[in-house]
Amino acid sequence: MRTLIKQATIVTMKEEEPFVGDILIEGDSIAEIGFAIDAAADEVIPADGMAAMPGLVNAHQHSPMSLLRGFSDDLKLMEWLDRKMLPAEARMTPEDIYWGAKLGIAEMIKSGTTAFADMYIHMDEIAFAVEETGIRASLTRGLVFAEDDGGRRMAEALELIERWSGKAEGRITTMLGPHSPYMCPPEPLSRVIRLAEETGVPIHIHLAETKEETVKIRDRYGLTPTEYLAHAGMFDRAHVLLAHGVHLSRKDVRLLAGMRGGVAHNPVSNLKLGCGIAPVTELRHQGVVVGLGTDGAGSATSVDMFEQIKAASWLQKLDYGDPTKLPARQALRMGTIEGARLLRIDGSVGTLEKGKKADLILIDMRKPRLQPVHRLESLLAYGACGADADTTIVNGKLLMRGRKLLTIDEDELLRQAARRAVRIVDGI
Fold first, then answer.
1. Which residues contact 80 (CB under 8 A, 6 or more apart)?
2. Residue 29, burial from CB neighbour count under 10 angstroms (0-12, 13-18, 19+)
3. Residues with Cβ < 8 Å from 314, sequence gap 6 or more?
4. DSSP 82
């Protein structure tokens, strides 16, 4: 199958400036990018007036929480979690999780996200949703060691890795998911780190999302959450995706310098829950890779990655009182290639270049609020939103064209989501 995208304004997220040209997709990969490609194709997509860019990478998600969107707003994080989220999640069946994941995936595809990192339970159901819809994902079974479960959670995590790594035409990768420092005592945490080192499987973990977490870890161990993980050897022995990283001291940031992996910044969720502003500028100055995530829709409401790009840049400008901080291009890179590095898939996706997988989106710029185009990257970072995504392609396959989902029955999805959401939250 050959697809030719004609006369798009191409934003490769490499060093070159945007230019008007063509993209030839052959099978699952980009075969050629140029100014005027003369090649036979099974499908030609006219893209005049559109920007072609790498698909967005959501580096931290809990996709089934889409069923809990808007259910528990305006609460402090621990109250939000204990009073609302945990009771509701306890009612979710594996089938609910499948439909919740599918709802989140549909929103991501329709807003230009082509890959995401997910941490949840009943991960087979999420993997089935990924396989069916055509999106790319890194899947993680969240591991909570607050009580003895006889090794069930760890067994499920290992089964996920064994069953799904490299499946769905290579679109699925996996990680190990110790939930957070406060949910993982030293001994099981060390087990997970050893396993990651032995198998080469990355780690996905929440870190320092709230002040309460830092107090808990300080009271238990006399350390910051980052020091706790560093003392366990996590950053020396594994590729690690750290979600949030809000409450990091200068010493913490220095401890992360040179780590494999990096931090998934979730600015909208952190803002909405009043958690704080992550030290993105300091992390980047230390050479730490910083990508972007939405967190689940239960906290962030929307999983539109363009919202995260705006919020990330604006928060750093506000925090420093300096509008030069985190400029548009850097924010776009955080939403594309830097997120791909966190998921350890940057060799395949994250930039538009010959030989990489054809994970890309077309943004319709023919709208009053996206005109005139003085500087395209600024408009994409500060003006575009997910609803501007016209076409989404993953692994060379069209998942959306002209705003119409091609791998999901949207009407049936919305019926299922509405019916299940009512039952899950009833009386909570």
1. 72, 273, 299
2. middle
3. none
4. I
| Residue 35: Cβ-neighbour burial (10 angstroms; 0-12, 13-18, 19+) | exposed
pTM of full prediction above 0.90:
yes
Tokens, residue 418:
């509405």
Using the Cα atoms of residue 265, residue 271, residue 277 and residue 281 in order, give the sign of their dihedral: positive
**Which residues have CB under 8 Å from 159's CB, separation 6+?**
none
Q: According to the model, what pLDDT value does residue 94 have? A: 97
Distance, in Å, from the CA atom of 378 to the CA atom of 267, rounded to the nearest integer, reads 19
d(CA 408, CA 417): 13
378 C-beta neighbours (distance < 10 Å), count:
15
Whether 375 and 382 have beta carbons less than 8 Å apart is answered as: no
Q: How far apart are CA 328 and CA 81, in angstroms?
A: 34
Alpha-carbon distance values, 385 to 65, 108, 306, 340 (Å): 21, 12, 5, 20
Structural domains present in the chain: 2-54+356-405 (2.30.40.10), 56-342 (3.20.20.140)
Q: Across the 428 residues of the chain, what is the mean pLDDT of every consecutive 10-residue run?
A: 97 96 98 95 97 98 96 86 90 97 98 98 98 98 87 95 98 98 96 97 97 96 98 97 98 97 98 95 98 96 98 98 98 98 98 98 97 97 98 98 98 98 94
**In angstroms, rounded to a whole number, what is the distance separating the alpha carbons of residues 304 and 310?**
11
Structure tokens at 24: 């030839």
Give the side-chain half-sphere CA count within 13 A for 156. Answer: 20
Nearest by Cα to 316 from 303, 334, 300, 301: 334
